[in-house]
Amino acid sequence: MTLRIFILSLFLIVSSAGIAQVKFEARASKPKLGVNERLRVDFEMNQDGDNFRAPAFSGFTVVGGPNQAVSNSWINGKRTYSKTYSYFLEPTGRGKFTIGQAEITVEGNIYKTSPIQVEVTAAVDKPTDGNNTDFVASENLHLVAEISNTNPFLNEAITVVYKLYVSPRISVSNWREIDNPVYRDFWSQNIDIRQLKIETGEYQGEPYRFVVLRKTILYPQKTGELEIEPLTLSVSVDVPSDRRDIFGGRLYTTVDKTVAAGKRIINAKPLPDAGKPGNFTGAVGKFDFKVIPGNTKLAATESMTARVQVTGNGNLKLFELPKLEVPASLEKYEPERTENVRTDLNGTQGSITDTYTIVPTRQGEFTIPALNFSYFDISSRTYKTISSQDINLEVDRAPAGGSGVAGGGYVSKQPVTVPGEQFRYIKLKTNLHPVNSGTFLGSLSFWSLMALPFGLLLGVILLGKKRDAMAQDVRGNRIKKANRLTRKYLSEAKKNLGDHEKFYIALERALHNYLKAKLHIQTSDMSKDRIRNLLIEKGAEPESTEEFISLLSSCEFARYTPSSKLTMEQDFEKAARVISTLDKQI
User: Among 32, 136, 139, 151, which residue's Cβ finds the most Cβ atoms within 10 Å?
Assistant: First the structure.
């Protein structure tokens, strides 16, 4: 009897141990969540199973999954295995919900998880989504518009710098602009950025990397509250997942995120009325004013130039220069405008010049009155006026033989002298010989010259047919040429596929070489605006052009951030396709 009890107990212990070896559990990221949050549910097993069946998820909408993760390791000869199916759920409303049982089959036996009770409450102020890749990308990627001054004067320069902040926890493989801001109430000027530069900084007290995507100078043209529309980007974000490759390296999941800089409001102040000069035309900044005359002593047949010039920093293109007034005895022509202006983060700087041409109509002394130029000085918040000097002009009598008009209105004349023997170079005697017509007519030279026009006509016809035949295969020739260029420029990048840094350096060089061959520009001139304009002028479609610019920016940005091998393969295929498409179009 005792032996039977012992054998039965041993059998039950072994059976219980065998049953306990298989674990299949369900876990929720939180037992309570707001209606505007997301829930992560993991179904984990410690042995590989088949025929996984998820529950119905009543009261929720599946927004992600199933994502499968497998972990297999050996420690001190002992194997540890786990396999997880993950779902991301979005509540459909408030209430208490039950996540039902999931099923799995292991060695012919069916195992089920226990139900999970979850409560959905009202919306929370700051939603969190656990390990959802979409949420991780949102929390670690920020597009910010930094404005130098939100309370400027009318026509005072302000700068808007758009920065993309990226956390070290993620990486960015590609980005493109979806919606560009329209500055309706501003005069705007973009500052060209030749190459993206990765910098380090902080965002909300945490270390981040960032890149300056765009710099813009704005001059308010109205007073009051003015809106700056947001810049919107589509960014491909590589988020680290729980999975690893066979070498232990972490695998990344690519998520496409849309980020916006947010709407900003500028409160533009009107310029003060106190002390405003009557000749004020809207100049705001810090300026110098000059009237520079040319030669002030001249004859009645000569002309002079006078330059009216404003130099400094401010809204140089948004006001009128003073008009030069001259006496009635001087003839003034319309001025020629010359602009030597550059724009950077310090504003618009340089000079604006009107060059007048003045011609006197009679002899005498004349005075061109001085000019006054007024502007609003930003640093002192006051109006300032700069005055030039009078120009004193002396006009002498026209020189002898000239066509000028003297003071009494008499036009000087000079007699015409006809020298003798002025036709002495003309030969009056000829030395002509008669031509013997019998030696040329009917000769070989005669018939050759007669046949020459017909031979030339036949040659032109044959050449035209040959050119037509070549022209009929233009599309094929272009495709062949595009394929040759693609193989030549992308061969180095393909060899380095898998090596992150070498791959993107080679791919960027391939794109630059293609631009040199097709657009005939050097690397130093390859600004994105210039490339865009040249491609469109060559006949490229806007979609293909923007895709090429996006790929170029992606190469510049991705060289400094880690990327998965899948992302590199996608960029390589995209480069080959875009180059081939552009070559057919242009």
Answer: 136
Of 31, 33, 32, 29, residue with least CA distance to 42: 29
pTM beyond cutoff 0.85: no
> Could you tell me if residue 204 is inside a domain?
yes
Per-residue pLDDT band at 468 (split at 50, 70, 90): confident
Q: How far is CA 220 from CA 142, 273, 341, 432, in A?
A: 27, 18, 19, 86
Q: Tell me if the bond preceding 327 is cis, omega within 30° of 0.
A: no
Are residues 389 and 299 part of one domain? yes
Q: For residue range 45-92, list pLDDT tens digits in order.
A: 888 878 888 898 888 888 777 777 777 666 666 777 778 888 888 888
What's the token pair of residue 32?
């309570």
User: Within a domain: residue 354?
Assistant: yes
Of the residues 99, 129, 159, the one at which a domain ends: 129
237 token code pair: 């974000």
Residue 445 tokens read as 């030279």
Q: Which of 349, 369, 396 is the last residue of a domain?
A: 396
294 and 255 housed in the same domain: no
d(CA 536, CA 547): 13
The predicted-structure confidence for 441-455, as pLDDT tens digits, reads as follows 667 777 888 888 888
Whole-angstrom distance, CA of residue 348 vs CA of residue 342: 6
Residue 453 placed within a domain: no
Name the strands in the sheet holding 60-75, side by side, starting at the edge strand that comes first in the sequence.
24-28, 39-45, 78-91, 60-75
**Integer CA distances (angstroms), 575 to 171, 186, 505, 570, 580, in order:** 20, 37, 13, 9, 8
16 in a structural domain: no
The answer to whether the CB of 21 falls within 8 A of the CB of 118 is no
Look over the chain and give the mean of its residue pLDDT values, rounded to a whole number.
Answer: 80
What does the alpha-carbon distance between residue 101 and residue 149 come to, in Å, rounded to a whole number? Answer: 58
> Is there a contact between 142 and 205 (Cβ–Cβ < 8 Å)?
no
Q: Is 409 exposed, middle or buried (0-12, 13-18, 19+ CB in 10 A)?
A: exposed
Print burial letters for 544-564: b (CB count within 10 Å at least 16), e (below 16).
bbebbbbbbbbbbbbbbbbbb
Environment class of residue 339 by beta-carbon count within 10 Å: exposed (0-12), middle (13-18) or buried (19+)?
Answer: exposed
Give the count of domains, the chain: 4
Q: Are the beta carbons of 275 and 374 closer than 8 angstroms? A: no
Q: Are 538 and 586 in contact (CB under 8 A)?
A: yes
Q: Is the pLDDT of residue 249 over 90?
A: no
**288 and 264, same structural domain?**
no
pLDDT, tens digit, for every residue of 153-195? 999 999 999 999 998 888 888 888 888 888 889 999 988 888 8
Give the span between the Cα atoms of 194 and 529, in whole angstroms. 9
Residue 5 is predicted with a pLDDT of 58
